[in-house]
Amino acid sequence: MRMPRLLARNPRPAALLAAGLATALLGAAAALGPTVDADTPAATPKAHPAATVTVDTADLVAAYNGGWMAGVAALGDGSKPTYPDVVADGSAPGTVAWMDGWTDGQADALGDDNRDGVVDEDESGWDCHTMGNRKCGPTVPAQRLGELDFADLCATVAECPAYAWTDADGTPHSVAAGRELLTRITAVPGTEEFAAALFALDTQWAQHNED
């Protein structure tokens, strides 16, 4: 069970590390006994068979803060979450708070807003210049506006380059780029007619450009 959030989270905490990391880690280690080595390969926490930790609310706050700082400091390559090597009673409230802080700290530092371990497009940690297809801003013409059910297909068609093909009797055909083809659709985006035109363009591309 996740502990409640005990610290106001900061989306970009790098500036906090130099001043607060050593103090927070020492305080958490003294209160709880977890030992974390950021250089140690990721491993599953090992429960101490005889340890029992009883802490009050103030200690939980310190534990969460210590875990948060440690998590930020142990991001590895800076783009993926890591897992701490902790030796403690895994069911103790202080340990749970520390681990919760670790997870939140890494998510905050990465900008992983939904905390699923991956920075997705439109999350605060997404950089369109270095991530995904490295394209920033709108990538499809205005025909996509108003098309909700098949917006992705609209974007796919828009990215298709111009191509040529020859039919069975030797007649050559030239097909314009997808953006140009979209401007030729007279149906209103969001209607069944517009969706049918999108599927026809996508099918035509697949027939002549995919094995």
Q: How would you sum up this structure, described in words?
A:
- Helices cover 41% and strands 6% of the residues.
- It is mostly helical.
- The protein has a two-stranded parallel sheet with strand order 1-2. A two-stranded antiparallel ribbon has the order 3-4.
- The chain is elongated, with a radius of gyration of 26 Å.
- The chain starts with 13 loop residues before the first helix and ends with a helix.
Detail the topology: elements first, then pairings.
Elements: H1 14-32, E1 46-47, H2 57-73, E2 87-88, H3 93-110, H4 151-158, E3 163-166, E4 172-175, H5 178-183, H6 192-209
Parallel strand pairs: 1-2
Antiparallel strand pairs: 3-4
What's this, in brief?
This protein has six helices and four strands. The chain is mostly helical.
What keyword list fits this structure?
single chain; 211 residues; mainly alpha; two-stranded parallel ribbon; two-stranded antiparallel sheet; 6 helices; elongated; disordered N terminus
**Radius of gyration over all CA atoms, rounded:** 26 Å
Distance between the termini: 50 Å
Got a strand count?
Answer: 4
The biggest beta sheet is recorded as: 2 strands, parallel
Net shape: elongated
Helix segment tally: 6
In percent terms, what proportion of residues is strand?
5-15%
In N-to-C order, the SSE pattern is HEHEHHEEHH
Uncertain residue ranges:
1-55
What structural class results from the helix and strand content? mainly alpha
